Each structure stands twice: as C-alpha cells, then as structure tokens.
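queue> pop job 88
queue> type: inverse folding (structure -> sequence)
queue> payload:
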C-alpha cells in the first residue's frame, strides 16, 4: 500500500502508519470501493437473540428533537435534554444511506442494503439495480440456520421496510405480490399493521386469493383483536398479529392518536419476544414506519411522539439483553432521513421553544379528517375559517387575536402574516382535492398535503424553533447504536450495506 523505503521515514511517520494499519483502516481500499468501508471480521460468540430496529426516516434530527422535547418538559432555565435510552447504548456508528439512483434514497433501496448487503435502485425490493437478480435477505439464511424470524412494523406489513426482510420484487408498489410472499414465507411472527392490498384490488387482479386465506392455509394463526393478540405465546405456532385499529393505509395509528388501552408498537415487540421464544434463538426486525410519514407531512410533534414510542419498543428488547447479556445483540438505526428536519428556524434565531409542541393534541392525519369532514358537510358559500378556529385551537393551540385567551396565551396568537397564510391555505383546502391546482410556490408551501393542516404544522413547528426543508427524504447519514454480543463491530463510520455485513459476520453467515 505505501511503497516508500522505510529508512527515509522519520520515526513519527512510521508510528502513524503503524497506527493506521493496525486500526484496520486501508485508505486505498476504502476509496476504491466508492464508499466508506469497515473491517467486518468477527471471531466472537454468535448471539441467540438478534434485534434490528429501524426507525424509518429517523436520523439525528428526529432523535435529537425527541430528546429536546423531553428535556424541555423539565422547564429548566438552561437547555437540558433527556436522552432516549437507546442513544446510551455503548457503541455508536454512522452509516451512509445513498442508493444507486441518488444521494437521497428511498426505503426500498436502503432496506435492501440493510437486509441483503447490496446497493440497488429506488423502489426495488431485494433485487439488483437492473431488476434481474433476486438477492436473499439475511432472514432467509438465519431461518435455515434454525433461528425463528419475526418482522414487526407500525405501518402495513407489506410496506417497503418490512418487505425487504421476506420478499423480492421489482417494485415496492407490488403490495399484493409482496403480501403473498409473506403468506408463503416460512417465518414465524409478523406483527403491527395489516395489508395494503390483501385481495389484489389495487393490483386490478380478479379472482386472486385473499392473502389472509393463503396465510391461514399455510399454517399461520391470524390474530386481529387485542384479546387474541394478548393471548398469543410460544405455543401459538406461526402468527400474524394485526392491530385492531388501522388507518386507510393499513398502518397502526400515530402514537399520539393511540387511545388508552389500544396496542402500541412496544406491545407488538413484547408479544413477538414471547411468541418467538425458543431454545435456538430468533431474529426480530422492528420498524417504526410513521416517523417517516410524520416527517413527510412536516408534523414534528407526531415524529417526536412516535420516536419516543420507538424507544419504548427498543426497551422491550433491552429486557431480553438484561436477562441474557451474553446471548443478545440489539442494533438500532434509521434507513434515511425524512423531511430535511432541523433544529433551528430563521424566525427564532438561536432559541427553541420545544414545550410549545405540547399544545398539539392530534397528528396532522387526524386533523385532516376534521378539515375534509367540514369541506364535505358545509356549502361552499357558507365555508369560513372562523368555523374551524375552535378545532384549530384544540389540535394545535393556535388562536387569533380575537380569542378570549389571547392575552394569557400570547405565544400562540397568530401574527397578521400567519393569519393571512392560514386564510389562503383554508381557501385551498376547501377546494376538492381532485381538481385542486396548485401554482409553483404553493407546491413548495403545501407539498401534496392538506394545505390548511400542513400550514398549521409549519406555524407551530416554527414557533418551537423546528423547520423542514422538504416533503421527501434527505441525503443525511443515519446513526447506528448497538449493545450486546458483537456490538464492537458497529463502532465507526461505514456504509449501510456494512450493517448487513456486520450482522452476517456476527451470525457467521459466510455469503
Ligand atoms: Zn424509509
């Protein structure tokens, strides 16, 4: 690698090179590969219980904003954060996320990298970028080795991130075909959301078997009430556990919209640990899918609340680690960042006011229902913003200067500028979404979201000192946190494909 004669080197240079060589850093190798690369050699023990937690759309801003939000609740004079437990795991790394199409990747390509170790193109599930070669996810190999396999997601079980752990498809949008692969898989536990297209209606298929029936025929027990799900255990056999309340996309509700007594992501992880429990061990992938959806919609509060619940879900696995520290590995990462979220806004300069977000009582998704119900139930000539002000106050805490609480709640009074922005968004929201034609600057203001809702989210975010740059993903790297057997491999800076390489090395998968 270095072809100079040793004797011309001063002793310090020699020591420096020795340090570099011994640390396993090979600059020419790394740069020739085109991405960061770490040494994934592992000769240690293989863990029996392996957890991979993926916060969809979760990078530093999503984690840090949740920690600042929790810290702000202490109401101390100086800034204080309350760390999410998983950020205290002993080993931290950083992974690049770009795919073969863009620095700004999607969940299918990044998921494929995490599940298989290859780079691929946007939208592809476990195939090469040319969509010719199918590549096995790590889960199939682990199953052959005797591990039981669990796949958990707060969004539909056939969504891109869960799909990369059991399917191969040219497109992430092939929901029916993906779910059919789930039903035909030999895996052991699927939990969380439902199926986006279980009967093949969206795929325009006629006479296609319902995937639930296929799954049952293949020996899966399907539980979709709280009682049936809570009754599951390691004698239940192979299980699909679907939350009793799902949204229009077959996803679980946002954590902030979850009612007392309803199941949350952490419940599906705890149940999975019970169902998968066996002497040979298991691998469980858990996705918090709606951190991503919240950030697409620029809803900081919904992102923060789902990230906090993600931490609770991780802590269920941590109990397994505490019980079996010499047999457990937990890895936590994101697949990419969503929203270009950041802490800092031009209007609030160096200040943040995270406790203002406490005023938000429902996600953008739930408020959208209020807006569309009003649009449908009120004659066009009768529609006025004043009618929705009480609901706006209830959902976001935002009020106008004529509100009787305006004096005591001055921080939440809309400025004249903000009020005219809200009025303009309200007008657009009252138009039928199907025929609504936004001009160029409105597309930047609202994206593809309900104009009134996204405007209210922006105003509250900005009052708190948070802002978003996009309704899509961004090119930020993602953090990696690890605890348990083999944790040391996750230290440093590497590519997302390396996370797969490290998991394979630790579980002794040779190809
Ligand atoms: Zn994603």
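queue> result:
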């Amino acid at each position: 690698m270095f072809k100079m004669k040793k004797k011309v080197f001063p002793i310090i240079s020699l020591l420096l090179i020795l340090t570099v060589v011994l640390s396993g850093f090979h600059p020419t190798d790394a740069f020739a590969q085109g991405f960061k690369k770490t040494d994934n050699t592992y000769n240690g023990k293989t863990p029996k219980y392996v957890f991979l937690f993926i916060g969809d759309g979760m990078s530093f801003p999503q984690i840090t904003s949740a920690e600042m939000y929790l810290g702000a609740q202490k109401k101390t004079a100086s800034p204080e954060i309350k760390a999410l437990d998983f950020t205290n795991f002993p080993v931290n790394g950083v992974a690049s996320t770009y795919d073969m199409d863009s620095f700004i990747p999607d969940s299918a390509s990044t998921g494929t990298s995490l599940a298989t170790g290859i780079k691929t193109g946007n939208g592809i599930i476990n195939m090469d970028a040319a969509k010719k070669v199918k590549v096995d996810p790590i889960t199939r190999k682990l199953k052959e080795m005797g591990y039981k396999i669990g796949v958990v997601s707060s969004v539909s079980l056939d969504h891109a991130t869960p799909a990369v752990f059991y399917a191969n498809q040219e497109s992430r949008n092939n929901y029916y075909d993906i779910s059919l692969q789930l039903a035909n898989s030999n895996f052991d536990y699927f939990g969380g959301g439902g199926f986006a297209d279980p009967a093949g209606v969206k795929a325009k298929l006629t006479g296609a078997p319902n995937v639930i029936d296929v799954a049952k025929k293949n020996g899966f027990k399907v539980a979709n009430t709280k009682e049936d799900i809570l009754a599951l255990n390691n004698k239940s056999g192979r299980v699909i556990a679907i939350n009793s309340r799902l949204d229009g996309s077959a996803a679980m509700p946002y954590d902030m919209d979850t009612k007392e007594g309803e199941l949350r992501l952490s419940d599906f992880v705890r149940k999975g640990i019970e169902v998968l429990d066996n002497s040979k061990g298991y691998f469980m992938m858990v996705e918090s899918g709606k951190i991503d959806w919240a950030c697409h919609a620029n809803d900081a509060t919904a992102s923060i609340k789902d990230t906090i619940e993600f931490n609770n879900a991780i802590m269920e696995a941590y109990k397994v680690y505490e019980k079996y520290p010499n047999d457990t590995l937990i890895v936590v990462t994101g697949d990419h960042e969503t929203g270009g979220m950041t802490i800092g806004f031009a209007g609030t300069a160096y200040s943040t006011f995270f406790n203002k977000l406490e005023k938000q009582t429902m996600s953008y998704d739930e408020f959208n229902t209020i807006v569309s119900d009003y649009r449908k139930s009120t004659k066009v000539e009768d529609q006025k913003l004043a009618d929705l002000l009480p609901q706006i106050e209830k959902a976001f805490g935002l009020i106008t200067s004529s509100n009787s609480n305006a004096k005591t709640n001055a921080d939440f009074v809309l400025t004249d500028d903000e009020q005219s922005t809200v009025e303009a968004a309200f007008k657009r929201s009252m138009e039928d979404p199907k025929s609504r034609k936004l001009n160029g600057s409105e597309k930047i203001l609202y994206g593809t979201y309900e104009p009134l809702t996204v405007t209210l989210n922006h105003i509250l975010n900005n009052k708190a000192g948070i802002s978003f740059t996009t309704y899509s993903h961004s090119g930020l790297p993602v953090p990696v946190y690890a605890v348990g057997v083999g944790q040391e491999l996750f230290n440093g800076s590497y590519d997302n494909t390396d996370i797969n390489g490290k998991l394979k090395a630790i579980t002794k998968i040779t190809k």
